[in-house]
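Figure 3 (text version): structure tokens given as input.
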């Protein structure tokens, strides 16, 4: 398959996912479900625990459908570019999808640019965070594009679901900067 055809197929897949999303996320004020899973940072596998992350400060937990698809790649680039701003505001960024660990290791380096952790979202985690991507009433097994901001006490203070990746970084960064300014 030529590069042009591959790019066209990837773009078509990305566009095909847009109408599949159903608005679903946990309500602001809800305690974020705890989880422990495997993840990757800079190509290296590591354990990821929400409880441990919250011990360091606020967490921006963003779910995305599939590594290496156009929208997910662009979103990862945007989060990578803003990682220092999130850190200045006292927040850690973690991306989650149902990709396998080998894919996450590659994605953490190539598209997350070694800047933040990506972690494996099991079906149980996707369900707990109410982010299944649904097509024709059926669960696809993928996560919907949803971003949460979780305070160190484990409460969700912001939830945003939109298959268009553009607003996720801007909106979550504004929330963590506001939280940092208030404290």
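Below: residues designed for each position.
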């Amino acid at each position: 398959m030529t590069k042009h055809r591959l790019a066209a197929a990837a773009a078509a897949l990305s566009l095909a996912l847009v109408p599949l999303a159903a608005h679903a996320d946990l309500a602001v004020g809800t305690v974020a479900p705890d989880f422990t899973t495997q993840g990757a940072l800079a190509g290296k596998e590591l354990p990821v625990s929400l409880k441990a992350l919250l011990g360091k400060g606020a967490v921006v937990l963003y779910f995305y459908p599939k590594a290496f698809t156009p929208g997910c790649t662009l979103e990862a680039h945007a989060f990578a570019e803003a990682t220092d701003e999130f850190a200045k505001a006292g927040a850690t960024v973690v991306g989650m999808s149902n990709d396998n660990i080998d894919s996450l290791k590659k994605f953490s380096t190539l598209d997350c640019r070694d800047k933040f952790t990506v972690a494996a979202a099991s079906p149980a985690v996707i369900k707990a965070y109410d982010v299944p991507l649904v097509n024709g009433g059926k669960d696809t097994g993928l996560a919907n594009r949803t971003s949460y901001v979780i305070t160190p006490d484990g409460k969700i203070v912001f939830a945003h679901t939109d298959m268009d990746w553009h607003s996720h970084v801007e909106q979550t960064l504004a929330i963590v900067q506001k939280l940092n300014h208030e404290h």
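The chain has a mean pLDDT of 88.
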